[in-house]
Amino acid sequence: MTGAAAPDDDLDLTLEGVDLVTLPKVSLHDHLDGGLRPETILELADEAGLETPRDEPEALGEWFVASAGSGDLPTYLKTFDQTVAVMQTAEALERVAREFVEDSVDDGVVYVEARWAPEQHLAQGLSLDEAVEAVASGLEQGMRAATAFGARIEAVQLLTALRQNDRSLDIAELALRHREDGVVGFDLAGPELGFPPSDHRAALDLLAAEFMPVTLHAGEADGLDSIVSALVDGRALRLGHGTRLTEDVDLVEDADGTTVAEIGDVAGWVRDRGIVLEMCPSSNLQTGALTGDLTDHPLDLFYQLDFPVTVNVDNRLQSGTTLSEEWARVAEAFDYGVDDLAVLALNAVEGAFLPAPERQELADRVLAGFDRARQG
Predict the structure, then answer these.
(1) Domain Adenosine deaminase, which positions (predicted)?
(2) Strand, coil or helix: what is 259?
(3) Within 10 A of 129 (CB to CB), how many other CB atoms are there?
(4) Exposed, middle or buried: residue 2 (CB in 10 Å: 0-12, 13-18, 19+)?
(5) Quick check: helix, strand or coil at residue 217?
(6) Strand, coil or helix: what is 31?
(7) Which of the following is catalytic: 94, 220, 278, 350?
(8) Which of 233, 193, 240, 190 is closest to 215 using CA atoms?
(9) Beta strands 259-263 and 249-253: pairing type?
(10) Do 121 and 73 touch, CB atoms closer than 8 A?
(11) At the N or C end, where does the chain have fewer CB atoms within 10 A?
């Protein structure tokens, strides 16, 4: 296969003698329009007669990482103007989706949910259904190519509605129309502050009535109220990011001087009901969802408190990362071993929008892959 982003020069992708790239991974929070190869952007832009901020792949990749590292979510989101602009034809969507799968395979990913917003890809005449069909074709091409290389991956779609727009009901209906064609769930993305899930109650009620799984961005750029709306109005089974769930967890010292966690009703619901947290460490640093450095990320706090935490890339291009690199960073920051990464991987399996028998089969594959890696 081809194309996965090169790892950081100083980032060690081995842990306890295991090559992290070879470990089987499940990617739940992975934006299609945030995973393009820089060279693909340049080629598609040239075909479409569009200008790009840089003319060479390496320089363009560096531009995306630098531009996304503003510490502000709306500014971070502006970088998507460049990627979405070159994804306006069926051929471009097919190519991007195919390469998305190829790059996932190169990173050891065995299951990926590609989330994207079809409403952003209609500028050159595609219908919503045609856009979804083009991505489905590209994902299928990528899976077939993986099989030809002796690899195995399942790549499906999560359809995203933009919370600042008014097309969420259209996108919910679109997801339902294509649920037999590889669309497994629904998402809300875009500026979080001021655009709560409750604004999209009609779409979310329809999805609940039709038993379509929902994961919502919440607790990234807004606080606990946004998470509550995702849980109550959205019936969310997963939370995209969820970093500000810490607002409902207090660390206090008991009479013996031991630090204990007091977990509030919202955080308790998330933990006790198994609502999966889709955490994206590098992205959270870029957008300002996290202050300090990676050691300050609440991922480890939630992990130690037995929340169903997962590690994700969010946007490989904007963060200049891969899932293997995110695992390596998390392992270094929190002194995790391979067994800890296995727990994170199985958390992701449990959160996958698959029927229970398929999740069990995926869990068996992941465990077998970890066993093989440990044995060398």
Answers:
(1) 24-367
(2) strand
(3) 13
(4) exposed
(5) strand
(6) strand
(7) 220
(8) 240
(9) antiparallel
(10) no
(11) C
Residue whose pair of structure tokens reads 């339902």 in the numeric block: 176
- Judging by DSSP bridges, how do beta strands 14-15 and 18-19 pair with one another? antiparallel
In which residue are the tokens 């979804």 written?
132
In this structure, the chain runs to a length of 376
Structure tokens at 334: 């929190």
Dig out the tokens for 97 from the structure.
């989706």
> What local confidence, expressed as pLDDT, does residue 257 receive?
80
CA-based nearest residue to 203, from 195, 194, 212: 212
pLDDT value, residue 7: 42
**If DSSP codes are grouped into helix, strand and coil, which group holds residue 88?**
coil
Pull the structure tokens for residue 174.
């679109």
Does residue 350 contact residue 276 with C-beta atoms inside 8 Å? yes
CA distance 279 to 283: 9
Report yes or no: 328 and 15 within 8 Å, Cβ to Cβ. yes
Backbone angles phi, psi at 184, to 5 degrees: -110, -10
- What domains are there in the chain, each with its CATH number? 14-375 (3.20.20.140)
Two tokens, residue 315: 């946007």
220 is catalytic: yes
- Integer Cα distance of 199 and 207 in angstroms: 15
Q: Report the alpha-carbon distance of residue 226 to residue 216 in Å, rounded.
A: 10
Q: What is each CA distance from 372 to 10, 22, 31, 177, in whole angstroms?
A: 26, 10, 30, 40
The span from the CA of 311 to the CA of 281, in Å, is 7
pTM reported for the whole predicted model:
0.95
Which distant-in-sequence residues (6+ apart) come within 8 Å of 94 by Cβ? 134, 135, 137, 138, 141
Q: Give 10-residue mean pLDDT values along the chain (376 residues).
A: 48 96 98 98 97 96 91 82 97 98 98 98 98 98 96 98 97 98 96 94 98 96 95 98 96 85 97 97 88 92 98 97 98 98 98 98 98 89
Distance (Å, whole) CA 19 – CA 373: 8
